[in-house]
Amino acid sequence: MNDLSHIEAKAMAQSENIAGIKKSIQRELNKENSNPQKLENLKKTLRLTENAFARTQLMV
Known about the structure:
Layout: H1 3-30, H2 36-59
Helix pairs in contact: 1-2
């Protein structure tokens, strides 16, 4: 696999991770007794993943 294909695959995986994290956040928000710590951790993970995705996009 060449470098560009590898970077594109990485970006695709990060994009899918971002979508999954957003779904997890929405599920947690929809819970009657949502866990504030879990929600905060999900938000941090989302921010970090979005930053990694942005850096990957700069490589393409």
